[in-house]
Design a protein that fits this description.
Order of helices and strands of chain B: EEHEHEEEEE
Strand content of chain A: 25-35%
Largest sheet of chain A: 8 strands, mixed
Helix content of chain B: 25-40%
Shape of chain A: globular
Largest sheet of chain B: 5 strands, antiparallel
Radius of gyration of chain B: 14 Å
Number of helices of chain B: 2
Helix content of chain A: 25-40%
Distance between the termini of chain A: 36 Å
Strand content of chain B: 35-45%
Structural class of chain A: alpha+beta
Oligomer: heterodimer
Number of strands of chain A: 21
Structural class of chain B: alpha+beta
Radius of gyration of chain A: 21 Å
Number of helices of chain A: 17
Shape of chain B: globular
């Protein structure tokens, strides 16, 4: 692959592809990786996809890839692209079909030894309280007016309805409420798909995971997040369900035509886009903001259900103290201001499988995290655990305040199915004391631990490159897979 | 089979081969259903339904048609069993799909994507690689 010969190391954890690699590239491309992660990225089309994103009109500085990069569609997973406002492009493919797919961590205050005694009861309770798997339905039934309110105001709607506290809202990225949302921009079909899916997990790589805090790297930051050693926290990973998928499907179709109208030439049709100030982009922007609000409300309704299960199962435990550590989105486009050549520039930052990682003192970081930076939640695989990190000033300077979103896959789904048998995986997890509930055996094999990169290495690169700092590691006790 | 799964790290990809465009579309549909469902099971009360799509290229028609089939399956909890193309031009498609009430599929496909999508004409016929977001 020609791209490999031209991606040159600039520092121990940073590779750069010059814009001369392709006449269509408008800026260089940069990959944060060590030699191992670089070699893994070279195994699929992710580096070509990274180079393709450097061709998007209006792109600023670099096309970026985080250490968990792997092949996606259009953008690579782990891709970050900032375009200049008002006339740089907005690309629905740079957000993805699961708009505001994201992760949250809920602290419980419960000691792991207490949870261990009722672990199966807890897992059964969670599995029955949250609808899991493919297909529609199983969530909160909304009427059209209620759906409008969710789309327009996200977590603010949850607070009003008693599903969220103001404290939980404050610990959600953008307070779980993007202001440019206009429900009128959401198609009837997308609305229909959203009516009965609020509070559902979905399938694929979505999960709920009950974890024990295993190790603290930064005591001050962990204290601020109420993460104590050997207490239990719960990770939730899901997005905007069918509503978000439909918003993206609608927009990608519209943009297929728009690219010709605006004379945009692209190396991959999935990168279809339109200038931010065009009618096509404006409509998608308003609808995407709605889908993002829906996704936050979705994770919050799931949190409400989890809280109910915890209160039921651990009614006698005085130490139960459920709170939201933070909620991040990792498939999104945002209007943000960043310094470019020492001047503040208004940008549209696309993060496709990448997490915002704002450093200490940034305006958008919650007041009680101002001194440590924004929590960056990096889930791993269902066996070897996950990391909580915090954003840094260096991320603000180098990556538009972005970091990795997970381990990143290293094995195709086909290969995982051939290599892993779901029953054997269940036994392995059981032997390690990890309780498993899964919506689909086929999906379970594809999500096996060996399908993912070594998360220690991924977060190690992120930390050594200065994009985020380690705060805590958590290890799974129970996993619910979609 | 006229379709087979090809390696894709994050999602699913399907290589489809056929001798004509209508055949290519139908085999792509069958391949997608094959990815979604584990086994056929007992199905009854099936019916044919018309599906029409407009677009500006064969690739666009293919993606939009398959997305429509995904949508019908999810919305009505129907399983699409088979499909036939009744009319096909570069700007429009008329088709009939055979649907039956069913449980949700074993695998959720979020969408059919345009990623690297080109219908290629070769000496042996037509082929296309479709990428599905899962």
């Amino acid at each position: 692959m020609a791209v490999l010969n031209q991606l040159l190391p600039r520092s121990p954890f940073l590779y750069e592809l010059p814009r001369t690699y392709s006449p269509d590239m408008l800026v260089p491309a940069r990959l944060y990786a060590d030699s191992v992660l670089f070699a893994q990225a070279a195994q699929d089309r992710s580096l070509e996809q990274l180079a393709n994103t450097a061709c998007l009109p209006g792109i600023v500085r670099y096309a970026l890839a985080m250490p968990d990069i792997h092949q996606g569609y259009g953008f690579p997973i782990g891709g970050v692209v900032a375009t200049a406002l008002p006339d740089g492009v907005l690309s629905p493919g740079g957000v993805g079909y699961d708009i505001n797919c994201g992760v949250r961590v809920i602290s419980t205050g419960l000691p792991a030894r207490v949870v261990r005694k009722k672990q199966e009861q807890l897992m059964d309770g969670l599995f029955s309280a949250v609808a899991v798997g493919a297909g529609s339905g199983g969530g909160l039934a909304l009427n059209s007016k209620e759906l409008d309110a969710v789309l327009a105001s996200g977590i603010s709607w949850c607070v009003k309805k008693g599903y969220s506290s103001p404290e939980e809202q404050a610990h959600t990225e953008d307070k779980g409420h993007l202001q440019d949302a206009d429900p009128d921009a959401v198609s009837p079909r997308a609305r229909e798909r959203g009516l009965d899916q609020l509070g559902t997990l979905g399938a694929g790589n979505h999960f709920i995971e009950v974890d024990r805090v295993d190790h603290i790297y930064d005591e001050e930051a962990a204290r601020a997040m109420r993460l104590e050693p050997d207490t239990v926290c719960i990770w939730v990973h899901c997005g905007s369900r069918g509503l978000g998928h439909q918003v993206c499907t609608d927009a990608v179709r519209t943009m297929q035509v728009a690219v010709s109208r605006y004379g945009i030439r692209l190396p991959d049709r999935e990168l279809a886009c339109a200038p931010f100030n065009s009618p096509e982009a404006r409509e998608y922007w308003q609808a995407m903001n709605c889908a993002a609000n829906y996704a936050w409300a979705n994770r919050q309704i799931i949190t409400h259900a989890i809280r109910g299960v915890l209160e039921r199962v651990f009614a006698a435990e005085l130490s139960l103290n459920v709170g939201l550590v933070y909620d991040v989105c990792h498939n999104i486009a945002k209007k943000e201001t960043h310094l470019v050549d020492d001047l503040p520039r208004s940008l549209c930052v696309h993060r496709k499988g990448a997490t915002r990682a704002f450093g200490p003192g940034c305006e958008d970081v919650p007041a009680d995290y101002q001194h440590i930076g924004q929590p960056v939640l990096v889930p791993g695989n269902m066996s070897s655990g996950s990391f909580v990190m915090v954003g840094t000033q260096q991320a603000m300077e180098e990556t538009f305040g972005s970091c990795c979103h997970g381990a990143g896959r290293v094995m195709s789904r086909t290969a995982a199915r051939k290599t892993v048998h779901a029953d054997a995986l269940r036994r392995q997890l059981d032997e390690r004391g990890i309780s498993l509930r899964a919506g689909s055996s086929k999906g379970l094999a594809e999500e096996a631990p060996q399908a993912y990169k070594d998360l220690d290495r991924v977060v190690g690169v992120a930390e050594q490159a200065g994009l985020a700092r380690l705060v805590a590691r958590t290890l799974p006790m129970g996993v619910i897979k979609g | 089979m006229p379709y087979r799964e090809v390696e894709h790290t994050a999602d699913l990809a399907l290589l489809v081969e056929a001798h004509s465009l209508p055949e290519l579309f139908c085999e792509a549909c069958r391949g997608m259903l094959w990815l979604q469902y584990d086994e056929e099971g007992h199905l009854s009360e099936c019916e044919w339904r018309s599906v029409e799509i407009a677009g500006s290229s064969y690739e666009m028609l293919l993606v939009e048609w398959l997305n429509e089939i995904l949508y019908i399956g999810e919305r009505d909890q129907f399983r699409v069993i088979d499909a036939r193309i009744d009319e096909l031009s570069e700007n429009a498609l008329k088709s009939s799909i055979l649907i039956c009430p069913s449980q949700p599929p074993a695998r959720d496909i979020k969408a059919v994507t345009y990623s690297d999508l080109t219908i290629l004409h070769t000496d042996s016929g037509l082929h296309v690689v479709l990428t599905f977001d899962v």
